[in-house]
Amino acid sequence: MLWKKYILLQQNNFKLKKGKEMRRNFFKKASLVVLALATATTLSANQAPWPKEITFGLIPVAGSSGMEEQFGPMRKYLEDKLGIKVKMQVSSDYTGVITGMAHKHIDVAYLGPKSYVEAAKRANADAIAVELNAEGIPGYYGYIISKKGSGLKTIEDLKGKTWAFTDPQSTSGTLVPTVLFSKKGINPQKYFSKVIYSGSHESSILAVKAGKVEAAATNDLDFKRGLGRHWNKDDFNIINVSDLIPGSPMVVRKDLPESLKMALKGAFIAYKPSKESALKSKGYVNGDDAMFDTVRELIKLKNELKKKNK
To answer: Least C-beta-crowded within 10 Å: which of 58, 218, 232, 271?
Structure first.
């Protein structure tokens, strides 16, 4: 079996070098490769050396402190499992992560479904694992919210009000509500008195809570991540809930060493956040590019509706 060849190759290399640290790192890498292969992935016979450090890019779903709280433990976990340094990098916007991967400044990343589709097209990205929600489903739901007590309880109530999308590359924060509006013949720039892009789901939710905008698009996962810390469910009206959206993927650059990609895949699938984790998810399952074909169809539909409504 290929994984046995991999272990024998690494053991031969090990004989040439001494030290407890290398032994520890070898067994971590080997065990993760074996776990990843159990998910029916194929390990390349060409064993390129691993870099001493990789960069873990993150789309800005929350503020800097929130991102550290949510993903800091995962970064440390990856360092421990891989035996190499993992640097976490939160981009100022979704496109920044895609651009970083395209220029090989980012090696592995947490993306939304739409931003992954763009990264697969522009940055040689490949989905290896998909996030599970709190119920263990590999997906999530888009929300449209308004402030409790505002009297805004339907999309029709929002006409002439202020509105917040999240980021142009956001799935639940822009793509899904845009398709919904287009189906209803709504042009957001004309329907709302003002349209902004908040930059993150946390910012959109907080803007509605503070009355800075009257309604916004977000999702159930990011909404639950802030419950009891930044807001309460009773602070909002949930005006609309979308159909299930594919879970957010962990992605790698295709040009990374095959053994490292397999080890990353195995590490993510094995990762089990604690009940107290700020991620509010149940971890990750095996993922692949085909899981996001429904998102590609949504992008296509959005473009068709845009032409039709001109």
So the answer is: 232
